[in-house]
Amino acid sequence: MKGSQKSVLVKTLDWVTLTADVSFYNADLNDQQKTAVMFSMLQKEVAIIHGPPGTGKTTTVVEYILQAISQNLKVLACAPSNVAVDNLMQHLTDYELKMIRVGHSSRVSSSLHLFSLDAHVSTDKYRDILLKKVDEVMIKNQKKGSSQSFLSPECDGVGIPNGPSGSRENLQNGKCQVK
Residue ranges under compositional bias (Polar residues) (predicted)? Predict the structure, then answer.
């Protein structure tokens, strides 16, 4: 058997095995959506789901994400607009997943704010350790006479070199946003 024939045989066997093992989270998927999910699951790097508006691409991507997570895979979902990311996350909120929405907090839908990076940082169990480290670095820099700082004047970012000092109290109170 030639190499390309082996590849087709392996893909066919993978497809048969996959179709027998998949139980879909959304029972309302049509055949094309199920096929797209299974096709995506077989890809090693990238799968593209393309179609006109209203054809169920978001529903298909949500199903794929749920399938990937059920296999203990990590998922990074991106979209060309904040609205598209929020739409995808809104569909996923019903499944009680551990998700983090990265993006400027003013552009995250208010219903998804608890998934924002800012919300995670302000409630993180390691926050106190971070505050202690920030104090240590600031004291060390002051002793050296360094003008480097980690907080902007409005406390709107962490890790900004050479900026004026921000308020540690704002960081403690969870009012700082990570840039």
Answer: 164-179
